[in-house]
Amino acid sequence: MKKIFKLSMVLIALLMSAGEMLAFPPGSVHLYRSGSLLSDYPTIQSAVDASQDGDSILVDAGTFIEQVTITTGITLRGAGRDLTIIQSPDKSSLVITGGNWKNLKNQDIYDVIGIKATNNVAVVIKDLRVDGNDQGYFPLAPDINGYDFQGIGVFNTTVTIDNVYVTGVRGLASEQLFFPPAGYPTDQPLGYNHNTGVFAESSSGAGPHTFTLTNSYITKFQKTAILAWGPTLTVDINNNIVQGYGKTMWSTGNGIQIASAVSTGDRTGTTGSITNNQILDIGFFPPAPGEPGEYAFNPWWGGSTCILFWEAGDGFIIDGNTISRTEYIPSWNSVTTSNNGGYSNMAIDAVSTTNLMVSNNTIFNFDEGLISETYNVTPNIIATGNSIYNNTHDYGWGGGDDIYVLNNSYPEVVAYNASGNGLDVITNFRDGDKLYVNNYDVVGSVNGLIGGLPTIDFTGGTVTEGDGTAVAAYSMQIYYDGTQTHLYIDTDGVADEAELEILFNGEYLTSYFLLNGPFIEYAGPPIPLSNWAIFLGIFLMGGFLVVLYRRKLSVA
């Protein structure tokens, strides 16, 4: 009898160590009201159904396979994001959240956790994991892009999500018998334009709402890790990690997207901040022609973007984020090497977003570091204190009046269009920094480049003083007004008024610039060393000389 008892205890211990296999008894979910335990429930949804505004639901450790729909202003808290797991049911059992919920894109919504508080009371989700279980491919759906599978979906509700792990919100390419060649992660997501890790929207007329996402981890997503849109929504996305695949073949897989382009503007105007996040290893790399895994690639398919704005609200803040890739791999379909007109992988892209404040971020190993693009509205960026380096373009075009304060720690490249630029102001253009200009209309060019080099070639041009009214072909004139140096650049190859004007803070002489083929390079005096740097240099040189002297004595 004792042996049977001991064996039973061993089996129970094994089952408890494999939480996913454990069937949870009544009492795993606890509903509290006014600080007192009201009742225990076997499922999260049953506790939610019994809840009122202001209640708290505490969930024990374990795996709960269910969809949860929240319509009351509650706090839902797990035992820890590695302990309490809410896992998507099999796709055959998924139902539309709320019975009939759609997003502003008119997609049917299938959420693991769906939130729409009927009394507009704030909701808190914390200390748990949401696992989509890779159930995002519905092969029998009437329209494969007519639905969105989401880890957490928030609709017209103020919500705080804290210390939550969201994973597996995707369909797998292998379900369509697509398999990546060597060098790509094997668990590639589908390429369809949907399936979102964390989603929030607040529609026009719904009243203002705030979406806060903090201390969370989002990985193994399909189209977008975090998507937020709507004109009445303010977001605070801070201290999170978004982990990409490294290389995706079919899904662009954006990191964070704010607002979206629509003719009615019902998804535009979202405001707020993205601060102190890590957005890692995001990049779309379809195989080049002739390489293993090559497929019929759409040349206008956009690359991945770590933070994408599309007509977001005025004055959005991006501060203190690290946006990086483990290695620098220029995508063959990007603006640097393309022969098909495709787009590239970008760290930050501001489309028709005004007064975007970009400060104290670290960005490296992308095709594009920080760029802006005009759609309906001319964008502009104010960038200060950033470390943007080792990108093909560190800063690029856009059409608005941008402000760039460059970082003297690394050489930086700023790219412009041949026409249609705003009046940018650049500070700290120094050693190793370059400007160049693309002309998209040049015959034989792709995205303004030929053979990966800019189409505007300044070879044979001159740098002279002048007011920009009569600039020689592919040359530059400069004028110092006592505060700023005006650069007047000819980009059409005709001696006439300059097509491009840029302002540099401070005085720059004609001798400070070198026209080196397609590049306008800094050729002025080096950055002055501080007294400490001079002292350190003397100290190190002294040590070096001592080593040489001792080596000479030992040889003798």
Low-confidence residue ranges: 1-24, 335-339, 530-539, 544-556
Distance between the termini: 87 Å
Q: Supply the helix-strand structural class.
A: mainly beta
Strand content: 35-45%
Report the biggest beta sheet as strand number plus sense, adding barrel if it closes: 26 strands, mixed
Average of per-residue pLDDT values: 88
Q: What's the helical proportion of residues? A: under 10%
Give the helix tally.
3
Number of strands: 42
**Rg:** 28 Å
- Give the CA-based shape: elongated
Core attributes:
disordered C terminus, about 550 residues, 14-stranded mixed beta sheet, elongated, 42 strands, mainly beta, 3 helices
Describe the structure.
The chain has 556 residues and is mainly β. The chain has a domain at 414-525. Helix content is 8%, strand content 36%. It contains three helices and 42 strands. It is elongated and about 80 Å long.
Helix/strand layout:
Elements: H1 2-17, E1 29-33, E2 36-41, H2 44-49, E3 56-59, E4 62-65, E5 68-70, E6 75-77, E7 84-87, E8 108-115, E9 123-131, E10 147-155, E11 159-167, E12 196-201, E13 209-214, E14 217-219, E15 224-229, E16 233-238, E17 241-243, E18 254-258, E19 271-275, E20 278-280, E21 305-310, E22 317-319, E23 322-324, E24 346-351, E25 356-359, E26 362-364, E27 368-373, E28 381-384, E29 387-389, E30 393-396, E31 403-405, E32 413-417, E33 424-427, E34 434-438, E35 449-450, E36 453-454, E37 463-465, E38 476-480, E39 484-489, E40 500-505, E41 513-516, E42 519-522, H3 531-555
Parallel strand pairs: 3-6, 4-7, 5-8, 6-9, 7-9, 8-10, 9-11, 10-12, 11-13, 11-14, 12-15, 13-16, 14-17, 15-18, 16-19, 17-20, 18-21, 19-22, 20-23, 21-24, 22-25, 23-26, 24-27, 25-28, 26-29, 27-30, 28-31, 30-32, 31-33, 32-34, 33-40, 37-38
Antiparallel strand pairs: 1-2, 1-3, 34-42, 35-36, 38-39, 39-40, 41-42
